[in-house]
Hints:
This is Protein EI24. It contains 19 helices and no strands. By secondary structure, it is mainly alpha-helical.
Amino acid sequence: MSDAFSAGFREFCGGVQHAVSLHRILLFYLKSRLICVSSVKCFVLNGLIFLGSIYFFDQAVIPVIHLFGELLHRSFSYGTTTQVDDVRDRVDGFVFLLYQVLWMYPIYCISFILNTIWYQEIADDAYMQLHGKPSPTPVTDMIRDEMYRAILVAFFLLQTVLSYLIPIIGPATSFIHLSWLYSLYCFEYKWSLAGWSLERRLAHLEQNWAYFAGFGSPFTLATFFVPNFVSKGIFALLFPVFLLLAIACDPVSEGGEASRKLPIFRINEVMAPVATDVCGSVTLQRKTENGIMLNTSKKEIAYLDTKARVKHSAQQVAQLDKPAKAQWISTQRQAGNDAFRNGDYQKAAEAYIQALTALDFGSSVEKKIVCQQELQIPLTCNLAACMLMMEQWEKARLMCDQVLAIDGNCTKALQQRAKAKSKLTQFDEARADVTRAKQIARGPTISVGDGSDQLMDRLDKQLDDISRAEVRHKHCLQQRKQFQKKMMQEAVGKLYNDKKEVGRVQKAESIQQQQQNNSILTFTEAALACNGWNAGVGWIIAMAAMFCNAISRILVATRGKLKTA
């Protein structure tokens, strides 16, 4: 218990340290004019205008009103002191109501919209500087996540407010809740740009709950003990700073007991779907026979499939003792190597997964590091190689991400991830991984043992392969665009010809209609002429005109039917 507490406390302190490490974000401001301009806009709107108006109202408007009240009271000497205080309270309340309705709420709504735009600009530019091009997210998934997130955050805020009412520990509990929520606000920009689903974001926060509680504590401390609108203004003013810190920092997990998942959002995960069903579904989610959502991305499918395999294997080795687990790991690793050499990559991957589930990281940080370097990293790299041979690019990338999260200087994982990204047409990111591996290879030490010259040759060859793959991909895209353009031109040409034919038919019908109108006009003129002519002659002419008009209508109708046929 003491080890778990000390590990959790170290993670908490690590989060606090990252939240106050302002030197980490100086490079963002030096490299990007957009970040500087957007940050200045946030400062002017939230600091000078929003918070400045509150300060001006409290320190200037209210004292002036009180001063006029005192002068009127002394001049006319009306009422008692109690009556004067009552009138003053009513005037203060009325002025404060006008101030909030006519200024505070409108400016808050406007600043909320503008801040959202500026925050996104800052996050996009900072993420591009540090991590490269963001991962695309389907629009349907984005809408689903945003609506589910709004419901979940609403319930979490309700939980935060209710926790404040708990006797004695209420304020501290509410403070921790707000720290988690503020951390989620800051980090979700980074996670969203990385293509993480909402479920993965929440799981990551619950897994590293101590770190995120520490990261959000300084932010919460700046807003917790001030009035409502002042708190909102300070939050909006400081948010760009903590947003950049979140993009520049990653949680540091101590492992062991401290890394046990804390179900922070468990109640919300239960209540939010109920609210979604009551208020209307966000999107249609129908499961296939294997339990995978139809609207789940390929990356999430790879993650869920790997997670299910690991869970199944872990259940098999959970009852083994340490010597038996060590023997199990050795046996499965050798079986995986033999299967890989024989070309049975599926069997090899299953053997490596079996070995990974039996890893024992020990109770100390030193033992964990040894286990990671000697067993977890090599086994995971072998598993990634199996995924590459089976052309399961997303799973291979996932395996490499796990290795690089442990050891960022693992050249083998960088090579494998570059190959997977190249197959996923993410050529810039693949080239960046190979370049990173070359930088490590030129250094004094290499994480995974390899001949330096041979490694550099392989990396140079891999860069050439990526360039050739990019050229082929662009050529295919160009051919596809040319084909689409040709099909579009043919479709437009056909549409133009159809339009000309329709215009010709409409012109013929217009001529026929004009002939009908002329016939009607002739009949009308003949009928009007009956008043000045001889009655008998006029009547004969009128009947002849009517007869001609009838014949022309019949001919027009017959011609139209023939054309239609």
